[in-house]
TrEMBL record:
This is AbrB family transcriptional regulator. InterPro entries: AbrB_dup, AbrB_fam. The lineage of its organism: Bacteria, Pseudomonadati, Pseudomonadota, Gammaproteobacteria, Pseudomonadales. The chain crosses the membrane at residues 25-43, 50-69, 81-100, 135-156, 168-191, 198-215, 221-239, 260-279, 285-312. Keywords: Membrane, Transmembrane, Transmembrane helix.
Amino acid sequence: MKTLLCLLIATGVGAALQYAGVPHGLLLGSILTSALIASNLHFAPTVPLGLGYVQVVLGIATGLMFKAWDSHTAAALLPSLGFLFVCLAVQITVAGFWLFRVSGWNLKDSLLAVYPGALAAVFDLLESERASGKVIVVHLVRLLSITVLVSFLIPAQTNLVIAEDSPLLTGTVVIVLSLIALCIGIGRVLLRIGVPAPFMLTAIVATGVYVKMGFLPDFQMPPWSVNFATVILGTLIGSKFKDISLADLVRHGRSGVMSVSLMVLIAAAFAVLASRVLGSDPLSLWLAYMPGAIETIAIVAFSGGLNVVFILTHHLVRMVMLHFAPAVLVQARRWRESEL
């Protein structure tokens, strides 16, 4: 009941900010509301299937855009992916060095704090490596900072149409339900081996296959599903502040803001360089080179009318490259501990 009340309040505040013209007010209002409730009442709303719902909805909506995907588009991504890998290496090195040398952190905490990955995988690593709690503060600051930054710098398009108000045919409903079941089934398998954002990854790939096979020629995600995903995502982000005291947030938050600022500025520099070399849109490249927050980036890119497929392809490649290694590390460590 408390969770439902929190979701309703978050929806009301977010809708009010959206109506008032605040960029991405639904997302920011949900974050603000749930953060205040979590920190003051020491209550974190629990939405057991919330993150999975967000990933499936955004993944399917992204996969539907693969109608225009071809080999030429895929080939055009390869040079940009090269810039991405170099950008990630520079981000980790510079931000990690700053925490290690300037802030005086130990090497393990410094590297885990600037690890540009999803929170779920990071928290799994933190538990396995027994890292300091200040690392969690830095990752929360990174998630919140990127969310607020891109939300205000990239205004939503009020005339953006996500779906037509047309009735769904029975055959289409059956196909969509089979797609959702496939995404959940494969996503749960990937989740067990430690792959981050597994439902989004599966939904994007599976929907792209469905689209290319001609199963979903006219289907689009209904607007309410994306709006509901936005509220849930904002509520989940804000609820992370339940166990973070104000003193810890102030003490370690400054280090987090500085490290995140360095990573975001490096992403901007590489975006400008890549745009000049490749002739691509620098704003899309900047979002593509962001160190994490894939769900937030997806929502902002959708509502901002940007090239979502181009942006999220970079994030998916980043996640596969950076998260499979930690996933294997965590599973190997757990296996070794179970043997002992």
